[in-house]
Protein 1
Amino acid sequence: MRFIFSIVKNIVAVLAIIAIIYIALKYAPFLRDQEWNPLSDTSNNVQQNLNDTQNPNGSSSGEPQNGKRYSLKENDIINNVPSSQIKNVFNMIDKREFMSVSGIGRMGYNDKYLAGQRDDEFIIYKFGSDSIRVYKTEFEMQQDLNKLGQHIELKPADAYN
């Protein structure tokens, strides 16, 4: 009887460990976007080194490589906020002030993504991610938004009260 109870107890412990690992890989922001994560959503899995978009001599090529229409940059939109709380903070802040501080001329957002135009660059930021996608044209950005199943219209700062 003790032997059977010991086996059941060990099986329950293994299942609990598997459940904890699954939840961590599926929902923890710092693990969810890693390219090695088998549970990450492949349409949202865009992590790559920033060095991939540089020439061997160290200068930026301006044209993304590996068949991508965008390049990745470090998230400089919202700093000093835990990635799990970025969406909550973004909902509370004044959008006009956010646009002026971050240099975004036109912006749109939904529950998952923030899209905007900064000078001659177009960006897509997934809330909670460590990087932003940077595009050369609005058309390329809209194409990738459509691939992600998102429709975000860019609006000027006057549209946000």
Note: The mean pLDDT is 80.
Protein 2
Amino acid sequence: MVSTNAIPAGAATAGGQNHHKARLEFVAGGLSGVTNVIVGFPLHKIIFRQQLWNISFRNAADQVIRKEFLSLYRGVLPPLLQRICNLSLLFGCYAKFSTELTLLAPRWNAEVCSALAAFMAGSCEASLMPLERVQTLLQDQRYQATYRNTFHAFGQLYRQHGLTEWYRGLTPILYRNGFSSVLYFLLKAHMERRATGMPGPVRDFTNGALLGALLSTFNYPFNVAKTHMQKTVGGPYTSFVTCLRLEYISRGRSVRQIYRGALPNCFRSMLSWGVVTASYEFFSHYLA
């Protein structure tokens, strides 16, 4: 007797092809991360200094480029590892979850499946936040004599404060990653359908840049709170809401001051996501 639950051969073949494609997405995402960090790290360091000390872009750039040129790429290893792993997880998990949801719930609306897959993929990225935590300390001038490099910082934090210190600032990262991933993948799909008549690389970079501008604006308060939560080593933990409220008060109850540094961050994000999207699409098609 033939089981009525047997999977048709065509469906099994298609499922196998989708799983193979999902595995390639992990590789393509990681390669796009390498390209992204090499291009964007100096600008990211300047913006980080602005967020930390609430100074002008010119003063932050003067500190980073003129006074600290020889250590310009100090702290690059955590974001390099983080970006490779983050983008690998983001694109790979999104493809994997999308495939699984389509097979498990074929009657669901495609955009619902896409949004759910994107949120889960963004949440998976948060597992790598210790790299972001260490990057914050290595870029802070106050800790240059305390932590020699990435591995030394990890060891010192663990020995002196325990494993939980690696995850200080987790909440804003979860919110940021989950919701921004949903926005990225849903809007990217809409823009690809509407952007006709442009060469592929130009279209991909343009779409990524526009999405980067939107995401940077959406994410900026999360990043401000995260930076100030993570600049502390040891001691009590401050909640995300409390930290953001204290920053709001300390900056004269001005939303504009909370967004200080948002404009150069927007340009950095446009460049970053333009490069990520274009290079990801290139590697994805090359590996297919």
Note: The longest helix spans residues 9-53.
Protein 3
Amino acid sequence: MDLTGAGWRKSSRSGSNQAACVEVALDLPGLVGVRDSKDPSGPVLVFAPGAWRAFVGREIRC
């Protein structure tokens, strides 16, 4: 899967400590990508948009 054109974003709450951040690409057609900001060329987790919304919604409520 070619992700070179993906627009990766970090949370605005990640602060100045960049050591433990995840980045999310929401602009992929039919997919959401998640990767470790320390290893941008490393593995990417890929979710269907509905699964990503369910995951994020669950995390926010906890």
Note: The two ends are 33 Å apart (CA to CA).
Protein 4
Amino acid sequence: MRSTSFQETGVGLMRTSPVKPIPGFLATAAALAVFIVLPIALAAMCVYGWSTP
């Protein structure tokens, strides 16, 4: 049961257990946070590297 919900991230979890959509929401929020934070961190590192000779 855990492997199935792990393979079907978010949508499968919400479909199988609509009573607990929180884990799927947390997974989605974590993925969005990674996609938002990583480019900002990379841009900050690049700007810092360029500004300091």
Note: Confidence is low (pLDDT under 50) at residues 1-10.
